[in-house]
Amino acid sequence: MQVWPSPWGPGFPGWHIECSAMSMSILGDRFDIHTGGADNVFPHHEAEIAQSEAVSGHRVVSLWMHGGLLMLSGARMAKSAGNFFRVTELEEQGFDPLAFRYLVLQAKYRSPLNFSTEGLAGADRALRQLRERVADWSLQTETGAGSARQEWDSRFRSALADDLDLPTAMALVAELVRSQAPPSMKARLLSAWDQVLGLDIHRTPDDHALPPGAAELMAEREKARAAKDFARSDQLREKLKALGVQVSDRALRK
Asked: Is residue 56 over pLDDT 90?
């Protein structure tokens, strides 16, 4: 790290001033949205505001959005604590990486989210089923119902406008899927909404999907590991192996 002399002793950049410098260098001295974790509000982001506005002489950021913490077994998930999962490790275990996105969309961005393999397995199944339905509906002949489509879309946009209420938006996705709306209208709406949700709903089901029963075995194995029942954990590993699922234990760190 670069150090320079100052009247008060050796000086070097701290992470507060680094972020002010990087954001203004890349985005300019006025930009709309600055995001970060809830743990960054004080002192980091308040220091950024003080520094950036002092040097520019005006308000730099229009809107600050702080996300809730990601939890694992009741504790904050963090690299420093070693209790974290990498997306690549989840993929190695057979999960679609976007299943994690599907899971996160169920919680308000301001709220903490407790991660579990069982919850991820459920999200993986739900996402796979959604893609299968959209694939079927997309083959249907286009029908009318323009006013109905506009009403559904208006409700989706209203949820987004309400402090980015994505849980309500996802509930609307589930409601639309179960509705009696024409299949072609469902496919068209979900395709439009996916520009926001980013779930890649038109992806064709592939060989990376978990085989039937694998998600349940993985969730059961995760519980066995948490309970330190390693004999049961090894038994479940062998069952998963028989299904063609290779399990890596690098993901869980204590």
From this structure: yes
